[in-house]
């Protein structure tokens, strides 16, 4: 009998030991390294076509601020998945809906080791390696990190890329409800729900360039059941707002660009300090009078009003570029041939509001022919409700009372005074308005001189931020002040939640104790119902 060989000459001998390494697929989860940058952005481009990728500065900043929160999955030597995060204090963060603010646009310079919440800024899996449950590995690694650091929760804002195909059939709310109920599959949300995250909120305009999600995102939370809070800590909700009040030096200018450069310097400084508001002085644009061809005061300011479009364009760009709300002082504006002194609020989302000065000073009327405005506005911002009282307006208690009665929590007072007496009228009235109405008041004025500019030649200022007077606030009711008559700015935090609590629990309760049975203030609005405060 002939025995045939059991293996061909080209096949390995079955008696040879099996080399397991020949069959292994090596996958590891490790910390992100700066050497991974090229692979990371290539993966990001593959995951999110058409969206801007990370820059090297952002990755360097992430690794500097919180290296433990930046992870990658490496499969067969290739970076195929990643996750980024930072730690924040849930009592401080009020902008869960705004990825750019919470994640510091990817730089995470707001990371704090003393926080209680891990915020996930991004998680991604290369399209070629989906199906390997790599996202689960990253989510589990995040949970392990949270337990290790004894944090209370993980919060993420997730995309819903499957919604784009269903947008014509249902609303975003209906879509996420169907996904969470397992009726539909979404490449991102389904995975997040499967990993124990609970949907808390649907966020519109979270990432407008994310067309697949139609700009929507989900706010999700995972709770650490092993979290042990500090029993000795007294918990209290806070609502901080950081204010920068500019003390602006008036000087001769040779061009519009020079004016913009001077303003941008202060905006940059305030934004670098993570300010929420930057307040500029009243009529700082009178520097530009030196550029005008008409020298007669009344004609010169009307010519100055022609700069208003450039002024609006500049401060709108600055508010977006530096992600800060700007009260751009004030500027002469022609409305139906009426010359008004108008203050503008430039929100960091690109929207603009205006408040005309209600009470022009006698000098404004005499020299320039300025007319007063007829409306008092209270503006919603991402840091509470605010109102603007332009200089002389703060000397009329009724204006502040109406604004506070309409909900204003911060009064911004851009002013322009030529001597110490004028400044002190503004300053003392600002402090009185803070006490009378239980609000914060910030004032910003001009220093320096403008030789040969009628009615705007000399200036006196001390910019400051003022509070009510009670145990919870700054001593003397002064949160911060500049040194008088130099070019500088003052930056200080105010807490809107303390303001709310003190109005009900303070030593005095100016709103509850008012004798509205004896007196009131009536604001008459043309074509609308009167407001009685």
UniProtKB/TrEMBL annotation:
<keyword id="KW-0378">Hydrolase</keyword>
<dbReference type="InterPro" id="IPR000182">
    <property type="entry name" value="GNAT_dom"/>
</dbReference>
<dbReference type="InterPro" id="IPR016181">
    <property type="entry name" value="Acyl_CoA_acyltransferase"/>
</dbReference>
<feature type="domain" description="N-acetyltransferase">
    <location>
        <begin position="27"/>
        <end position="223"/>
    </location>
</feature>
<dbReference type="InterPro" id="IPR003010">
    <property type="entry name" value="C-N_Hydrolase"/>
</dbReference>
<dbReference type="InterPro" id="IPR036526">
    <property type="entry name" value="C-N_Hydrolase_sf"/>
</dbReference>
<dbReference type="GO" id="GO:0016747">
    <property type="term" value="F:acyltransferase activity, transferring groups other than amino-acyl groups"/>
</dbReference>
<feature type="domain" description="CN hydrolase">
    <location>
        <begin position="241"/>
        <end position="496"/>
    </location>
</feature>
<dbReference type="GO" id="GO:0016787">
    <property type="term" value="F:hydrolase activity"/>
</dbReference>
<protein>
    <submittedName>
        <fullName>C-N hydrolase family amidase</fullName>
    </submittedName>
</protein>
<dbReference type="InterPro" id="IPR001110">
    <property type="entry name" value="UPF0012_CS"/>
</dbReference>
<dbReference type="Pfam" id="PF00583">
    <property type="entry name" value="Acetyltransf_1"/>
</dbReference>
<dbReference type="Pfam" id="PF00795">
    <property type="entry name" value="CN_hydrolase"/>
</dbReference>
<comment type="similarity">
    <text>Belongs to the carbon-nitrogen hydrolase superfamily. NIT1/NIT2 family.</text>
</comment>
